[in-house]
Structures are given as C-alpha cells and as structure tokens.
C-alpha cells in the first residue's frame, strides 16, 4: 500500500512536470507579441486574433507550428499592407524555418538578429520599404535556401558573407539602392568560368562559393565594377540597370552613376534583448540501495527541473520587461511614473485643457483628417483664432516613458517655428484622465494643396497663383534649413503637408512628425537614464530627425506635381519623376509637363521651374543646390505681379477674375 501511494505521488508529480514541459515556449509567444507591437497599422486586421494573453499562438493568422504544436516554424503574412518595423526579437523563434512578409509596408532596417535563426530556410522581405544595409550576419544562416529582399530601399554594399551560404539556391536583391561591387572572392574575379569553381589556395568569401546558387537577381541597383566570371551563367537581365562596366546588359547612364542614389527616410527599429541560455545542472549518482537511488534521482530531477523552469520563466519575464519602462497604472496619481524633462523646455508653450479643446472643436465632432497615428479636428477658440487639433491615437497601456519624453521634446521643437509660410504650433494638451496627447496648430482655412490640385477646380489655381505657392514653399523651407538653429525638416514633404490660407498663401505643416517620435523613442530608449521612478532626458539625446537633402528632393517632386497637376505616383502611369524625365531633358517639349487644365502659362517661368526641378532631383546629393539658393533662383526669375500676368496674355484677365 505504501509503495502504491508513493508511485501515485510520483506519477502525479511527473504528470505535472510533463504538462509544464509541454507548454508552448513563453519566449516564442513574447517574440510574436513584440512583432505585433512593432506594427502600427493593420488595415486588413490580419493580426486581429493575435491575443497577447493567449499562451498558444498556433491558431493565430499567418502562424504555422510544428507537428507537436510546440514551436513556431513558419510566419507567412504577405500582401497584408502591414505598416511598422521588424522586431529584432524574432530571433527568439529558434525553430523558425520560413519568414515570409512579402508585399507589406515595413520600414526601418533589417535587424541583425535575423542572422541568429539557424534553422531558417526561406527569408522573404521583398516589396516593402526597408532601408539601411543588408546585415552581413545573414551569412550565418547556415540552412538558408532562398533570400528575397527585392523592391526595398536597401543601401550599402552587398555583403560578401552571403557567399558562405552553401545551400543558397535563390537570391533576389534587385530594385534597391545597393552600391559597391558584386563580391566574387576576396574582392577579385575568378579566372575560371565554371560555376562554383575557384583557384586552389584562395580563401573565397563571395558568391563564387555559392555552389548551389541557381537564381540571382542584382538588377536596378548602383553596383559598380564587373560581373564575376563565376556568375556569367546567370541571365544578363540579372545585372541590368546598374553601373557595371558592361554595355550589355543595359546599364544606368553616367549621370545617374555619378553619385549616390536619392536619400530615403530612415527609421530605427526596436532595441533587442540578449537572452543567455541557462545551463542544466549535472546530477551525480552515489552508492545507495537501488530503489532508494532511483527514487532520489527521479524526485531530484523533477524538483530541479521545476525549479529551473520557474527560474527561466521569471528571468525571461524580467528581461522582457526591462527593455522599456512602462507607464505605471494606478488609481493614485502619486503612483504614476514621474517624468523629468528640462523644466524650461515647455515654459513658453501654451498648455490647453482637454475641456477647452473639446468646447472649441464642438465635442470633437468636426473631424477634418485622420490617419492610423492621429485624428485632426477643426475648432475655434473663444474670442480667438481657428485651430487644427491633432489628437495622437495611442492607447494609455501602450504609452511609455520614452514616448512621453519625445512628445514633450517634439512640442518644444515645433513651438520654435515662426514664419509666414509655416504652420504655427500655438499649444498642446497633456492629461491623464482621460488619457490625452494633443497638438494645437493655427488653422489654414483653404484645405491642402493636394485637394486643390487633384480634387478641386483647376481654374482656381492659375499659373501665377501656382508660382506664388511655389515661392512661398521655397521661402518656408529656406527658413527651416538656413535660418533656424538647429535646422528643421519636414518629415514627409508633399502636397498634403502644404495647407493654404484664404488668399492661397502656403503653410508648411508637419502633421506626420508623430511617426518620427515613435522611431526615435525606439532607437534611443537605452540612452535614457533612470533612477527609481524618475527618467532623465540627457542633453546628448538624438535631436529631431534631420533630412535636408530628402526635403530638397521632395521639393523637386512637389514642383512637378504643382505644374503638371499629376499626383507623385499614379497606378496607371507610374512615378511622376520617371514620367517627366524625358520632357525635362528636351527643352522643345517642356510644355508637355504643364497641367492641361491651365489655359495660360509663361514659358520663361516654366524653364526656371524645370531647371530647379533638375537641381533638386539630381541623384548625387552633393550636387543638389541648397534651398536658400533655389529660393533665390525662383524669386529673381519669376515675376508674380499682376502687371506681369496681364502683359503675358489677354486670357489672364479672365483668370484674374476667377482667382480673385
């Protein structure tokens, strides 16, 4: 009886041990949850059934588990229009064999931690908006067979380490902005033309080591040098559209290869956590009776294992939580996390209460714009101006100390802007109950330039009026780049960021700056020192993202949009810049770029505008002219006075009447 009771206890304890061991790895659930957290827009609700409280993700959309349902082996979420970053914590999915995220809107860089996925066989991040270099550590993916990184904005050199991948059969890196050579071995070509063969004594690190490589596409980058002899078996189209020393296939023109490709907006990814494996304790046997020894061993193993599981789980949760500082939730106001910023930072900025703004915006019913990140309301302050209120769409449980620090820093940045062609921040709102973070701008009553160009009546934007808008935008950007110290740039400069007043004077407004707050808070979270519940924002913390060259390029595209009446990108006709290039290079056909809605335009103005456009969109950033000089060119060569307009054409009388 005593023996039976002992056996029942052992079976019960052993069963409990099996249940605990069979539970889905918590670090893999954590990795998937951080992946979802890094996605800030899911328009198709693909991730709607990803429940953070669910300990078993095998039923989640796009997730495929092993037969034993104990590990994630595949993620396939393609064409879902997901917008966000790639979480570096994906490396915790140690059994992952396929990562397929093709055709989304992922931004930021490719986390180097992807190189830790030793079992990965298929990596497809194609057709996104990823930037930065290809991490050389991808050369550590020892089982990889297919890599697809095509149609992104990747820069830097093509890592020679990819040649270490002995099972790699397919590599697609076309349609990026990669530079440098196509690495063969140690920076030189092979004398042998046989695929995969190399000279004895050499220590190859390039693609000539990839003996299994069957498909490779390097086209439409900015690669230089020659095609490695060991890759001549690939179709010529695999190398076209580069800057290689080959006439066939067709390469880019010398002008396009003279410098680096146009810059793109960068965004940083989330900080990673390093997880060290816990070593299993070793058990030694002692000379005791066999039945007692067996009992002690079984009991010791189970108790020890349960302790280790509990310890690892606790450490895992501690590490996971230590990567950010959460906003403490408590009924007591004093229990909330204290945020310390330079006390003088916001002293000159008006702070509005939520109640004031709610009254001004008619109970927040007057919505004039929205995005996944924010909602824009129109309102009128009592006895004051009309206002545009941007309410940030972030739930309190997702708000961190870092986001709060950057929100306040962004308010201070925007508050220093004071120019007739820039939207002015007149205040902000910051309350905890209900949770509120709002920016208050002066309101420009005539809508956006985009609305007038593409949805309004074309006659409202006469040639002279368009020229005034162009010069106004140029003045605003010159103020941002040259007169402010430190300089300031628009996060996403386009016709939607240009608001018009009643007299069609342009106002540059950076409503998209919230995206930069998110990216910078993630990038620099480790730079914030903490003492207890107080977080200090150091003076050395990275300033607002500055992309002067990106603004200049975007200004050139905006000029094209203004004179042509065409959107920057059209599904049927493609990119506006590509469409216009053939006309911009031939003076005789410059008039073809003019909006057909315009009954009259001045050829002298058109030549000046097209000259400025060419200076803005030059592929070499070093050869682009500053906004100060571009503004001077426009102001000195374009006459926007009524007299000049009337002299140019008798039809101007009619246009003047319509535009007055």
From TrEMBL:
It comes from the Eukaryota. GO terms for biological process: defense response to fungus. The chain crosses the membrane at residues 291-315. One of its GO terms (cellular component) is endomembrane system. The keyword Chloroplast does not apply. Keywords: Leucine-rich repeat, Membrane, Repeat, Signal, Transmembrane, Transmembrane helix. SUPFAM superfamilies: L domain-like, Protein kinase-like (PK-like). This is Protein kinase domain-containing protein. The lineage of its organism: Eukaryota, Viridiplantae, Streptophyta, Embryophyta, Tracheophyta.
């Amino acid at each position: 009886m005593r023996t039976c009771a002992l056996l029942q206890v052992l079976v019960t304890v052993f069963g409990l041990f099996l249940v605990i061991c069979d539970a889905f790895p918590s670090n893999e659930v954590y990795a998937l949850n951080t992946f979802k957290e890094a996605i800030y827009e899911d328009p198709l609700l693909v991730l709607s059934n990803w429940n953070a409280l669910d300990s078993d993700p095998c039923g989640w959309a796009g997730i495929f588990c092993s037969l034993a349902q104990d590990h994630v082996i595949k993620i396939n979420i393609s064409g879902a229009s997901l917008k966000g970053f790639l979480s570096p914590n994906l490396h915790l999915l140690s059994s992952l064999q396929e990562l397929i995220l093709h055709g989304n809107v992922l931004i930021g860089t490719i986390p180097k931690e992807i190189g830790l996925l030793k079992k990965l066989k298929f990596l497809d991040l194609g057709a996104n908006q990823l930037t930065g270099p290809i991490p050389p550590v991808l050369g550590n993916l020892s089982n990889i067979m297919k890599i697809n990184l095509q149609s992104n904005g990747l820069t830097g050199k093509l890592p020679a380490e990819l040649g270490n991948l002995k099972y790699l059969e397919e590599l697609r890196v076309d349609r990026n902005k990669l530079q440098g050579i196509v690495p063969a071995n140690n920076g030189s070509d092979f004398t042998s033309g046989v695929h995969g063969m190399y000279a004895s004594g050499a220590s190859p690190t390039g693609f000539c080591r990839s003996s299994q490589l069957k498909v490779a596409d390097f086209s439409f980058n900015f690669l230089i040098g020659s095609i490695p002899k060991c890759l001549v078996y690939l179709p010529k189209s695999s190398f076209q559209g580069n800057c290689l020393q080959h006439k066939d296939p067709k390469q880019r023109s010398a002008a396009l290869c003279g410098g680096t490709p146009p810059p793109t907006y960068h965004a940083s990814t989330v900080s990673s956590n390093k997880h060290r494996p816990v070593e299993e304790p070793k058990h030694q046997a002692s000379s005791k009776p066999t039945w007692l020894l067996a009992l002690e061993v079984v009991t010791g193993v189970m108790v020890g294992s349960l302790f280790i599981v509990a310890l690892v789980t606790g450490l895992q949760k501690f590490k996971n939580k230590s990567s950010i500082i959460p906003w403490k939730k408590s009924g007591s106001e004093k229990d909330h996390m204290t945020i310390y910023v330079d006390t003088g930072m916001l002293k000159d900025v008006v702070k509005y209460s939520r109640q004031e703004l709610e009254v001004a915006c008619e109970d927040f019913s007057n919505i004039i714009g929205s995005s996944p990140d924010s909602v824009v309301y129109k309102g009128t302050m009592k006895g004051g101006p009309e206002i545009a209120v941007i309410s940030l769409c972030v739930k309190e449980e997702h708000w961190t100390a870092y986001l709060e620090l950057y929100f306040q820093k962004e308010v201070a940045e925007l508050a220093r802007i004071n120019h007739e062609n820039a939207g002015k921040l007149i205040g902000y709102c910051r309350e905890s109950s209900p949770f509120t973070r709002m920016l208050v701008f002066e309101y420009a009553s005539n809508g956006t330039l985009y609305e007038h160009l593409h949805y309004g009546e074309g006659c409202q934007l006469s040639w002279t009026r368009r020229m005034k808008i162009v010069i106004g935008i140029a003045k605003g950007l010159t103020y941002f780049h040259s007169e402010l110290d430190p300089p300031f740039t628009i996060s996403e400069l386009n016709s939607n960021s240009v608001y018009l007043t009643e007299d069609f004077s342009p106002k540059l407004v950076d409503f998209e700056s919230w995206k930069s707050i998110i990216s910078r808070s993630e990038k620099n979270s480790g730079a914030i020192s903490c003492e207890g519940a107080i977080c200090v924002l150091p003076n050395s913390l990275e300033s607002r993202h500055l992309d002067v060259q990106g603004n200049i390029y975007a200004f050139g595209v905006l000029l094209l949009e203004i004179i042509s009446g065409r959107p920057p990108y059209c599904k049927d006709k493609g990119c506006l810049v590509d469409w216009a290039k053939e006309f911009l290079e031939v003076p005789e056909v410059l008039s073809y770029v003019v909006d057909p809605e315009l009954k009259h335009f001045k050829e002298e103005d058109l030549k000046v505008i097209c000259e400025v456009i060419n200076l803005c969109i030059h592929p070499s950033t070093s050869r682009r002219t500053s906004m100060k000089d571009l503004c001077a060119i426009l102001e000195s060569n374009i006459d926007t006075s009524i007299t000049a307009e009337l002299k140019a054409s008798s039809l101007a009388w009619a246009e003047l009447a319509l535009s007055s």
